[in-house]
Amino acid sequence: MMIRINLLPVRQVQKREAGRQFIVLMVGMFIISAAANGYWYVWMDGKREAAQRRLDDTNARIAQLEKVIGEVTNLQRRKKEVEEKLAVLDKLTKQRAGPVKLLDALATAIPKKVWITSFEEKGGAAVMNGAAESFDDVSEFMRGLNNIVWCSKGMGRVVERKRDGNFRVELLGSEAEILENTPAELGFFFSNLELKNTTTDAAGAGSKAGAKIVKFDMTLTVNLGI
Fold first, then answer.
1. Tell me: the pLDDT tens digits for 136-162?
2. Hey, is 179 helix, strand or coil?
3. CA–CA separation, 23 vs 35, rounded Å?
4. What is the dihedral of CA 105, 106, 110, 114, to 10 degrees?
5. Mapped to the 3 state alphabet, what secondary structure does 131-179 carry?
6. Contact indicator for 135, 129 with CB cutoff of 8 Å
7. What are the CA-CA distances from residue 70 to residues 62, 81, 141 (Å)?
8. Where are the domains of the chain?
9. How far apart (Å, rounded) are the C-alpha atoms in residues 178 and 160?
10. What is the pLDDT of residues 101-138, one digit of tens each?
């Protein structure tokens, strides 16, 4: 006689147990997912707050820099205004001293046998009339005008124009010191000299019989800003 065992209740119990395990697993996964999402949200919120703080700090620094830039701009504007005023004052000072230096330079350049009868200057352009005992004296006068300069130590005369472009200058003082200067260090009193007209005429009373004088007209540019 065979014994029959009914396994249906056991299978039902196993199914119910499997169902409960599945539900527990799903609940566990939900809890883990919720926890992970919560952690991720907190972590991202922290990063957002940190980024916001950095952004706020950056904006604060930008505001400070804009303020500093504004102050620097104002200082530069004020500096430019002061420099412009000083330039005007310097120009006025040079204009006041210019004619005095010009007359001194002119007197220094005139040879003994040359004299000036008239001198007119306007806006740096000058017309000069004079007389000399010879054409050589007129040429010497023009060379003298071309060589009168102003340097850091005062008025001087160019005695040599070197091949490297520099100048040897003799100071017109008691010591007669010789200096070497670059073109940028010198200011030439006279430039653009042009002999417009020359005539010969009889010398005045008191001169030797038959003596002649050379009358000349000259144009030139004078630098009153030295």
1. 999 999 999 999 998 888 889 999 999
2. strand
3. 18
4. 180
5. EECCHHHHHHHHHHHHHEEEECCEEEEEEEECCCCCEEEEECCCCCCEE
6. no
7. 12, 17, 58
8. 9-100, 110-222
9. 10
10. 888 888 889 998 999 999 998 888 999 999 999 999 99
